[in-house]
Design goal:
The chain has 272 residues and is α/β, with parallel strands linked by helices. It has one domain: Glycosidases (TIM Barrel, Alpha-Beta Barrel). Helix content is 26%, strand content 24%. The protein has 7 helices and 11 strands. The strands form 2 sheets. Strands 1, 3, 4, 6, 7, 8, 9, 10 and 11 form a 9-stranded mixed beta sheet that branches. Helix 2 links the parallel strand 6 and strand 7. Helix 2 crosses helix 3. The relative contact order is 0.16.
């Protein structure tokens, strides 16, 4: 996911109050479909203080950026979340790890780095219902990423979900993960599309249908109204009942949560 402005504060206690874990089966099974869609709306709590105590746990989940990892040469540099996060009791959470490679030194992508990174991601899960990896892997990094996902899936308890974000291009015309990726959920991000925006928009207007794990969810930015209108119209015709992740370039507010719920036709309710 594209980097946000980092707000530096003294470390705060992160309050992660999660409900009991759900059991997940194969992504194509009815059990998996029923349980992963227990909340259709998920909001990303990114690298800044967030107060989400007012959201309804029956309608919204929170994907929390729990750590950021830099692969630099042969090292793995882990930076844990330091920003405050306030959540309501009973909220379901997903522990997100942002992975980047050092632009200056590059990354060796060794087996030792893979093992360290996999262990760190699995350990970050805690009481969350699963983990999500956010890694915009370049072509030269894809085989490492594929092996990383396989290793995490092998280490992660089966009752925990394994989710990953995806560039929009991967979902439409660059499916390098193939037909059976080792994940429960892939979240194509339809925001900050950059140079490929025109091509993605064209495919959306032509009602291109996604397949497999790419049909489970997608991500939007609450700030990109034109894109959201197009993607939601496409989804209504092709991907009903999938989960929708919302990113906000600014801190979440009750009004912003209401806007997200209204976009997908959910009843906003009254903030707590």
């Amino acid at each position: 996911m594209h980097n946000c402005v980092v707000m530096r504060f003294l470390p705060y206690l992160i309050i992660l109050m999660s409900s009991a874990s759900c059991v997940f089966a194969n992504p194509t099974s009815q059990s998996y479909q029923t349980q992963i869609h227990s909340s259709r709306i998920v909001v990303w709590a990114w690298e800044r203080p967030e107060d989400l105590h007012y959201i309804d746990p029956d309608k919204v989940e929170v994907a929390v950026l729990i750590q950021s990892v830099l692969l630099s040469d042969a090292s793995v540099k882990v930076r844990k979340r330091e920003q405050s996060l306030r959540l309501p009791k009973g909220i379901r959470t997903i522990a997100v790890t942002r992975v980047e490679t050092d632009r200056r030194t590059g990354a060796a992508l060794t087996d030792e780095q893979l093992t360290q990174l996999s262990a760190s991601i699995v350990a970050s899960c805690g009481s969350s219902r699963g983990v999500q990896i956010d890694f915009d892997a370049k072509v030269s990094e894809r085989e490492f990423y594929r092996r990383l996902l396989q290793d995490i899936r092998a280490r992660l308890p089966r009752e925990k979900i394994l989710s990953m974000t995806s560039l929009a291009s991967w979902s439409f015309f660059d499916n390098w993960l193939g037909e059976n990726p080792p994940v429960d959920e892939i979240v194509p991000m339809f925001f900050s599309l950059g140079a490929g925006k025109a091509e993605v928009f064209d495919l959306l207007k032509r009602n291109r249908v996604l397949k497999g794990a790419y049909r489970q969810a997608f991500g939007l930015s609450i700030a990109e109204r034109e894109t959201n209108k197009l993607v939601l119209a496409w989804a209504a015709a092709n991907q009903k009942d999938c989960r929708i992740y919302f990113f906000n370039p600014r801190p979440w507010t009750p009004d912003a949560i209401r806007d997200a719920l209204k976009l997908v036709g959910a009843t906003p309710g009254t903030p707590r």
